[in-house]
Design a protein that fits this description.
The complex is a heterodimer of chains A (321) and B (282).
Chain A: E1 24-26, E2 36-42, H1 52-65, E3 74-78, H2 82-93, E4 98-103, H3 108-117, E5 120-124, H4 137-148, E6 153-154, H5 162-179, E7 186-190, H6 195-207, E8 212-218, E9 246-250, H7 253-266, H8 272-288, E10 291-297, H9 305-311
Parallel strand pairs in A: 2-10, 3-4, 3-6, 4-5, 7-8, 7-10, 8-9
Antiparallel strand pairs in A: 1-2
Helix pairs in contact in A: 1-2, 1-5, 2-3, 5-6, 7-8
Chain B: E1 10-11, H1 13-18, E2 25-31, H2 36-39, E3 46-49, H3 65-74, E4 82-86, H4 88-103, E5 109-112, H5 115-121, H6 152-160, E6 164-168, H7 172-176, E7 199-200, H8 216-226, E8 234-238, H9 244-255, E9 261-264, H10 267-271
Parallel strand pairs in B: 1-5, 2-3, 2-4, 4-5, 6-7, 6-8, 8-9
Helix pairs in contact in B: 4-9
The chains are: A alpha/beta (321), B alpha/beta (282).
């Protein structure tokens, strides 16, 4: 493949790697201190539209290599959307079937996208009166399918798979190291499965032990799809607190207002989780004042128009004749 | 089982696995998510749907005696069988099923400790989608235990006198009236809050993070020492629709051994809709 001409044999050759990184764009108007270089790494330039392409591809390739998928055995995965979209599109393009178990509060756009990408959908109601540590309904239902119909399904399990971490250790981390020419001092990201933070931090800390890793999380009871508050992180076995310097808890409404600002001020059509990460970076820049920071922007705004209108009602004004 | 008053009503997942296929042991799965059974169940288990099979289909009431006899008989359950219930959400509706079996006098009913999720997460425990074949039997209720059920008149009496422990097992936000029901629930009420005089003791205080029940010592410390339940008094537990309160009813009656514990199955969806009854908030 030749990344100069950008002509590819198949869609999978477009997946990001050290030689074909997702772009990094410098932030100007929204950077409170120009002496602090701030970059956004735009993960939606990956072929299936989000940072989850990395973990999905690593998990799928691993399952194929071990003979766990194929011959009628497909995959089942609990997902809030992006992993499912990546996995479904990849699986179908490789000839496998895919069942996605989705919490009900996931936006309609993502549910429909999952179906468009080729997933069979199971929607489960979210929180009833939960007790800590019980696990989440979508994870339990996916595990049930994988256990009760093991001839039909294997569960990649993004919350536990070491491949999720390895994907970022092998691609996201080295890409950032090369793209910043080793200058990076701060890494800003959000927490979901924690594959990104654990994999990328492990690589980058290996290159530069003093690197600061800052994770943002929405306030409890939030409505930011794909992210988890630390109180919800029990479900991820990939969370390694020792790799994170600061965890900032940020009012989740800012995810939406900052995303809108990024769209309208920087021309970056970033989704709500990117908005939250930007707000975290902004606060740390005010504190640390100098450095070179990279924000990992997980996906773009296109899947979130309904959520945007819910949290910024003025966006609906003037949209009807 | 650690020092429970009636340890025989609780079985471990290992015990269930060792006893799979025993003809006189009947496994029954009852879930909040009524699709969970079809997605995968313990081999040999039958599934009861709480919405369509465990309550009267027309009026607001528990299953009638005749309907219960038909449900149990059609599931191949004989009055002398051991019935082991399990389900999702920490056995909420499994506990409701347990209560219903006890109301209709079934002698040997048990809960699987740790519920469905513990079985699911143990690698040696199988699940299947295979249809369970049952041979229907004739089931006859010979004894009714209606004293296990509380009605609103008794709840009002409990509220106005100090004769009962009145235990509200819902989440703190439901107790204070901040919400009327957990998000997305269709069964609700006109008013939020709690029955005056009720103590807030959320059901989840009785379980460990792996879904199993806490030890008797821990439960005594929570219910008696910290929350003020008087073990010498009669007790009424309620929630929103009667399933979480079945769970706490089970804890109070069988694990802690209180003598007279009733489940108010009308719960907040009855009380919070009644005209003219007193309500407290916060």
């Amino acid at each position: 493949m030749n990344h100069q001409t950008r002509v590819y044999r198949d869609v999978f050759e477009m997946l990001p790697s050290e030689d074909n990184p997702t772009p990094m764009v410098r932030i100007h108007r929204m950077n409170p201190r120009p002496e602090f270089e701030l970059y956004a790494k735009l993960e939606w330039f990956s072929p299936f539209g989000s940072v989850k392409d990395r973990a999905a591809w690593a998990m799928l390739r691993d399952l194929e290599a071990r003979g766990e998928v194929g011959n009628g055995r497909g995959i089942v995965e609990p997902t809030s959307g992006n992993t499912g979209i990546s996995l479904a599109a990849m699986a179908r393009a490789r000839g496998h079937h895919m069942r996605a178990v989705v919490p009900n509060k996931v936006p309609l756009e993502k549910k429909v996208l999952l179906k468009i990408a080729g997933a069979e959908l199971d929607v489960v109601s979210d929180e009833l009166c939960p007790a800590p540590g019980l696990g989440d309904g979508s994870i339990n239902l996916a595990k049930t399918h994988a256990k009760a119909q093991s001839e039909k399904y294997v569960m990649p399990n993004q919350y536990e798979s070491e491949q999720n971490v390895l994907a970022h250790f092998r691609t996201t981390g080295p890409e950032i190291w090369r793209q910043t020419e080793g200058k990076i001092t701060h890494l800003f990201l959000s927490l979901g499965t924690c594959g990104t933070v654990t994999g990328a931090s492990r690589f980058l800390r290996g290159q530069k032990p003093g690197l600061k890793v800052i994770a943002v999380q929405p306030t409890e009871g939030h409505d930011v799809p794909g992210l988890r508050n630390v109180s919800q992180l029990g479900v991820s076995k990939l969370f390694d607190r020792s790799l994170i310097d600061d965890i900032l808890e940020i009012d989740f409404h800012l995810a939406y207002t900052r995303a809108l600002e990024l769209c309208q001020t920087e021309g970056l059509l970033a989704g709500p989780s990117s908005g939250l990460i930007y707000e975290g970076a902004r606060r740390i820049i005010e504190r640390d004042q100098a450095g070179c920071g990279v924000m990992i922007f997980p996906d773009n705004i296109f899947k979130y128009t309904a959520n945007m209108v819910k949290h910024i009602p003025s966006l609906a004004e003037g949209t009807q004749a | 089982m650690p020092n429970y008053a009636h340890p025989e009503v609780l079985v471990a997942t290992d015990w269930v696995k060792e006893n799979l296929g025993q003809p006189a042991i009947k496994l029954v799965e009852v879930d909040v998510d009524t699709r969970a059974y079809d997605a995968g169940h313990i081999p040999g288990a039958v599934g009861f749907n709480w919405q369509t099979q465990l309550q009267d289909p027309l009026r607001r009431d528990i299953l009638s005696r005749e309907a219960f006899e038909k449900l149990a008989g059609d599931a191949g359950i004989a009055p002398t069988d051991t019935v082991v219930l399990y389900g999702d959400n920490n056995n909420w509706f499994a506990a409701y099923g347990f209560w219903l079996f006890k109301v209709y006098g079934h002698a040997d009913v048990r809960l699987m400790n740790g519920s469905r999720v513990k079985w699911l997460n143990e690698p040696d425990k199988p699940l299947t989608t295979a249809k369970t074949s049952v041979t229907p039997v004739a089931y006859k209720v010979t004894r009714l235990n209606l004293d296990l059920r509380a009605y609103v008149t008794q709840v009002l009496e409990a509220s106005q006198t100090a004769k009962f422990n009145l235990v509200d097992v819902r989440s703190p936000d439901e107790f204070t009236g901040k919400v009327i029901a957990p998000p997305g629930m269709s069964e609700t009420a006109q008013r939020g809050g709690h029955v005056p005089g009720a103590a807030s003791i959320p059901w989840s205080l009785a379980v460990n993070s792996d879904g199993t029940f806490k030890t008797a010592e821990e439960l005594r410390a929570t219910y008696f020492d910290q929350k003020g339940v008087d073990p010498k008094k009669d007790t009424i537990a309620y929630c929103r629709i009667g399933e979480r309160s079945s769970h706490s009813w089970f804890v109070l009656k069988y694990l802690l051994g209180l003598q007279n514990v009733k489940n108010y199955d009308g719960s907040w969806t009855e009380y919070g809709n009644l005209v003219g009854v007193p309500i407290e908030k916060a």
